[in-house]
Amino acid sequence: MALSMKSTTSTWESIKPKVIYFAIGLVAGPVLSGMFGWQVMTGTANEQVRAGIVDQQAVFCAANAHTETADTSKLDYTARNDLAKKHAVMPGGTAADFDVVSACAKKLAG
């Protein structure tokens, strides 16, 4: 009986470092991958999607504004902003998003 008890203890002693390293890896892995930017957090993904949507809507706004005024770069800031407000309302929407108006006005300036 003493022999079997010794083999169980020696088995645990040989596995123990691997279990500890595994536990450390479970904790350190997500922390390190988050620090190095290998993970995309929900907030970051939402910001990137929002930026893409605003940019796409600004492209549509600028295209519509160019049909009304061919050379928008000669307009002053207020006129470009008013033109952007007019064309930044997306189909089905009731009001223009401030970010879309701002991005559209920047596109009309250049």
Task: Summarize the structure in short.
The protein is an all-alpha fold. It has helices at 2-35, 42-68, 77-87, 98-109.
Describe the structure.
There is one protein chain. The chain is mainly α and 110 residues long. The protein has helices at 2-35, 42-68, 77-87, 98-109. It folds into two domains: 1-39; 42-109, no CATH class. The chain has four helices and no strands. Helix 2 packs across helix 3 (77-87) and helix 2 crosses helix 4. The longest helix is centred in the first third of the chain and has 34 residues, at 2-35. The chain is rod-shaped, with a radius of gyration of 30 Å. The chain starts with a helix and ends with a helix.
> Residue-averaged pLDDT, rounded?
88
Low-confidence segments, given as residue ranges, are: none
Domains (count): 2
Number of E-state strands: 0
Broad shape: rod-shaped
The helix-strand sequence is HHHH
User: Which sheet architecture does the biggest sheet show?
Assistant: none
Decide which structural class fits the backbone: mainly alpha
- Give me the Rg, rounded: 30 Å
Number of alpha- plus pi-helical segments: 4
Q: What is the beta-strand fraction?
A: under 5%
Distance between the termini: 87 Å
The level of helicity is over 70%
